[in-house]
Amino acid sequence: MMKTPNGIFITIEGVEGVGKSTNIEAVNEYLLEKEVEFIITREPGGTILAEKMRDLLLQINADEELSELSELLLIFAARAQHLEQLIRPALTEGKWVICDRFTDATYAYQGAGRALDRNKIAQLETLVQGDLRPDITIILDLDPEAGLQRAQGRGALDRIEREKLEFFIRVRSAYIEIAIAEPDRCLVIDASQDIDTVKTNLLIALDQKLETLLGDD
């Protein structure tokens, strides 16, 4: 696999319970075999301050409900810190960045799920990111009802995971719309299959996408 002056930015997306952690580990093993220098991070989070903002976003607060606009602004504040402190420096150094969720999640969860104005999200995206966008986005697709059942099996649910099924149906639809609109960037992987099949399909699709993006040695 050829080297590039700047790193490759890969994001992993999907509703609750799609198996992001398991499949990120598969990507980790794949890149180790390719001898690629990379980091794995997540959103919201990735830095000390951004992780504190993540806690604010996900914790259940009985005293004061987080407003939808505050949620959106907190997400982009965490993203700005994440980009400044971790993602941009890594890419500039030629490292690849694998990120568990990024701005597509904001369009899906806050845009479609919360019905916030997409134009406002786009304005914040431009303000915070400039022209930086993921090179490849892997969307793990799963029926939200099945995903929530998996999530519930992991233990206590956070503030977002406790949303109603209809919320996650809108989120999933938004992800599919993103994939249709940007087929050159997005890979949609059926996450309803067994773990080994999902992993195999993901790595085959990723390998093909990288070959197109970078070319062979």
Description:
The structure is a single chain. This protein is of the alpha/beta class. The protein is 55% helix and 12% strand. The chain contains eight helices and five strands; from the N terminus they run E-H-E-H-H-E-H-H-E-H-H-E-H. It has a five-stranded parallel β-sheet with strand order 2-3-1-4-5, sandwiched between helices. The longest helix is centred in the middle third of the chain and has 25 residues, at 68-92. The protein is globular. The protein starts with 8 loop residues before the first strand and ends with a helix.
Quickly describe the structure.
The chain has 217 residues and is of the alpha/beta class.
Helix and strand topology:
Elements lengths: L8 E5 L6 H14 L4 E5 L5 H11 L9 H25 L3 E5 L2 H11 L4 H12 L6 E6 L2 H9 L12 H17 L4 E5 L4 H20 L3
Helix pairs in contact: 1-8, 2-3, 3-5, 4-7
Key features?
alpha/beta, 12% strand, 8 helices
Rg of Cα set: 17 Å
Structural class: alpha/beta
The succession of helices and strands, N to C, reads: EHEHHEHHEHHEH
Give the total of beta strands. 5
- Which stretches are low in confidence, meaning pLDDT under 50 for 5 or more residues running? none
Biggest sheet strand line-up: 2-3-1-4-5
The main sheet comes to:
5 strands, parallel
